[in-house]
Amino acid sequence: MLTTISWIALGIGIISSIIIMIDVVRHPQMMTIMNVVWPINGWFFGPFAIWSYFKWGRLKAKDYDGEDNRGRGAKVFMSTSHCSSGCTLGDAAGVPIVMLTGFTLLGTTLFAHYVVQFTLAYIFGILFQFYAIYPMNKKAGVMQNLKNAIKADTLSLIMFEIGMFGWMAIVHFGLFAQPPKPTEATYWFMMQIAMILGFLTSYPANWFLVKKGIKEAM
């Protein structure tokens, strides 16, 4: 039953990503990196990502000439989506690395996943933030914009990983007698849930960063 549910959830996520991707190609975002962010969100948020994209994301398309009526909550949601997508990409990329290398830490693959995935999630997350702010402030130069990206996204990245890693620990030590493997659909369904929880733990951090002026609301 869980395997069937997992395949259904993964299928919905992939279809949601494709739907968003098709529309993004037809209506590119003003901020180029968001053309990548929205389809990635589709993978773990599914239909909710489609709804949020057409409600808020389309307002930032290059060919949209209407009023931007988003409130702060929606803008912080987009900032969190931007952060989460970079983390998601890094976390997903880390899975096959651990699996193919057989890397373990302290006798378990879970801690190996923590190290590899956090490292890649941090790199991708900062790069996503960099490519959000650099086009708007090229005069500051690459290094200054990179420093600004690190300052703006480090806290939210850490909070995302806390939510995600917490769920991974529950899955690894509590939910299954034998944790699912990356070759199984159940593993990736658990990862989808982990991404959603990471988003939820990252949202308050993004709200704080935006409120303090450390990070720009998208």
Describe the fold and architecture.
The chain has 218 residues and is mostly helical. The protein has a domain at 70-211. The chain is built from 7 helices and no strands. The protein has helices spanning 2-26, 34-45, 47-55, 72-101, 109-133, 142-175, 185-211. The radius of gyration is 18 Å and the shape is globular. It starts with a helix and ends in a 7-residue tail after the last helix.
Brief account:
Keywords: Membrane, Transmembrane, Transmembrane helix. The protein contains 7 helices and no strands.
pLDDT averaged residue by residue: 91
Report the principal-axis shape: globular
How far apart the termini lie comes to: 40 Å
Uncertain segments are none
Structural class: mainly alpha
Largest sheet: none
Report the strand count.
0
Keywords:
218 residues, globular, mainly alpha, membrane, 0% strand, transmembrane, single chain, DUF4396 domain-containing protein, DUF4396
Secondary structure elements and pairings:
Blueprint: H1 2-26, H2 34-45, H3 47-55, H4 72-101, H5 109-133, H6 142-175, H7 185-211
Helix pairs in contact: 1-2, 1-3, 1-7, 2-3, 2-4, 4-5, 4-6, 4-7, 5-6, 6-7
